Hints:
By secondary structure, the chain is an alpha+beta fold.
Amino acid sequence: MSEAAERIVVLFDGGCALCHGAVRFIAKRDRAERIRFAALGSVAAARVLSGRGVEPTGLPDSMVVVSEEGVHAKSEAALRIARGLGWPWRMAGIVRVVPRGLRDAVYDAVARRRMGWFGKSGSICPADPPGRREVGERLLPDGEVMTR
Length: 148
């Protein structure tokens, strides 16, 4: 499958307002609807990860991407999402010239402060804006596992 057609699942922190905003941002721009979502603590996320032979423990608690190529965290997860959104977002890939350790350090700094800066969400699910259905139909139900 080509990069452009790659299906991914974004696992997000269900209690984080920044993560909820990111999920809505991604869903709105993913016109091909190849990106699905699940809260990190959900049964659906555990099943997606176990289908890849990965235990949820030890993963960052902000965002993780599961693709056909594996499980991606931190800055690599963000770049996978941008690539999945197509033009112009895939241009963020130029950031790969920055060493991964430095990219991840910036990611970690934002992740550590995200609750203080953006607050907590009162719900595990990011709500769709009134009159729109961008996210709800793309949340993985607890019984669904991503297939190739």
